[in-house]
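Appendix B. Raw example, untouched.
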Amino acid sequence: MATAIKGGGQVPKVSKENATKGGDHGVVVDRAEDLDGYTVNFVTFRQDIDHGPFLKGLPDDQCQCPHWGYVIKGKVTFQFGDRQEVFQAGDAFYAPPGHVPVHNEPGTEYLQFSPADELRKTNEVIMKNMQAMQSN
């Protein structure tokens, strides 16, 4: 996924349609690709999700990976310590380490950029928790 630039180099790019990672996880569809050390996620929520249970085991049971994003449709609520922030369609946002996504409208779509290595560590914990929940 790259396009030629003047001087012969390549600029990485990705779209929701050609992203090769992520998948359909029932309540959420995540299409992703790594570009030069960052992961780009195209996320669509089918129903409201509290991410808290999926983050158990991370420091303070919170996501420690920073994210930059843009809400395309709907709205999402993040918990930052003792306060909540709502990001809705048209909002660009930065979620620093120490957050928990606690609500989203069904149908919410957003684009997210995260440091790939940090996101990979977070996703390992999330997948482990998801598997444990499914086996109970």
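End of appendix B.
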